Amino acid sequence: xxxxxxxxxxxxxxxxxxxxxxxxxxxxxxxxxxxxxxxxxxxxxxxxxxxxxxxxxxxxxxxxxxxxxxxxxxxxxxxxxxxxxxxxxxxxxxxxxxxxxxxxxxxxxxxxxxxxxxxxxxxxxxxxxxxxxxxxxxxxxxxxxxxxxxxxxxxxxxxxxxxxxxxxxxxxxxxxxxxxxxxxxxxxxxxxxxxxxxxxxxxxxxxxxxxxxxxxxxxxxxxxxxxxxxxxxxxxxxxxxxxxxxxxxxxxxxxxxxxxxxxxxxxxxxxxxxxxxxxxxxxxxxxxxxxxxxxxxxxxxxxxxxxxxxxxxxxxxxxxxxxxxxxxxxxxxxxxxxxxxxxxxxxxxxxxxxxxxxxxxxxxxxxxxxxxxxxxxxxxxxxxxxxxxxxxxxxxxxxxxxxxxxxxxxxxxxxx
Length: 416
Hints:
NRAMP_fam; transmembrane helix; membrane; Nramp family divalent metal transporter
């Protein structure tokens, strides 16, 4: 074999290794996206499509762009933080701020666990007719608890979630094309427009798609996977951007499906179960099954990440370790799952009051987390050459303004 042929083979092998190494950087942002793309997100998207057809798709686009920038800051914080994000917060902003951030995220996870539990049970009951959603809630919660007990739990969960995100993407892309939407009208929905009476729904869409909790946790996935500054550019291209854009696109597709179904059947739907039922005459039983499968994937993935993130941050807040594999993190994750199952069993339906409490907590916690992320990303003593640029700060401030607007609107609704 000639020297040139050998050199070509070596170069090809290096390229192959380079491609696989780059793809191996996928993970933390997909975990955040899976958490973000939960039952609440889908239900809000269905309501947007049913009530206002394609006109609110632009909200998803704007929220996704802001989410990318906030998540990018969290990735850089994960790279530069010596131990964990909360430990760095304690060092730079004080121990009280660090503890409050961790406990605040845990409390939000505790409350959101109910929606995830109900959603996973509902999703499987749609896939397996004439079965009890509550029964499936218990089964799925036990399965998630078993996953969280595995060794190297974060890496295992990360791989599972990347697979689920891929499954959801296929389900919702197929659903959108089967629904045969008006793609021109969907494209026009990218132009900002606020129909009368839509502002509360716009705020809700921003709140579910600009998930500061999920962005905050990305720093932990980045640290868990030992990402370095040399990896940053590739992380941005193969993880941060696609990991956040994927749930944004899927949310937009749900709006498109709801809009198309309404346009062709004349029936609206204000819930996922309602949309799947209305969707069946249009797409047939298989179409309804595919859509329900996507919904179950969203609920299941959000349940996993919600429990893992809440446990990890509570463990870190109290100095017991910044990994999902610590005993404190696993116990806290178990508490989150048990709370979701317990409330579901007691109420046997969606516990609206607890969801309201979760929103009230978000009013106080999400803007604080956003502000902390932006402040920490500007700490030159920590970030050095990875400190925020002026344009990154611009998008960070816009993100803070968005969650503050959400907080004010929710506060008015809750206290009004």
